[in-house]
What does this fold into?
Amino acid sequence: MNKAIITVVGKDTVGIIAKVCSYLAENHINILDISQTIVQAYFNMMMIVDMTNIEKPFEQVVGELVEIGHEIGVQVKCQREEIFDKMHRI
It folds into this structure.
């Protein structure tokens, strides 16, 4: 399985989840686990996804997710699971 971690952070607004999840579905990216919170007016979502079936290069998906974030006013980051794990090891 080719896992990645996607984080979405920013001012809460209507449609954040819909926009991000629609993109994932259109690109054959399966959400394995998802957590979201809203603290005061700020939205925070973290997803673990399976990118085994993507038809685009990983870097292109990352760039498109960043662009979606710009369009809706949030910051979207996508990292391969192994990179995320190494960066957050204690």
About this structure: The mean pLDDT is 92.
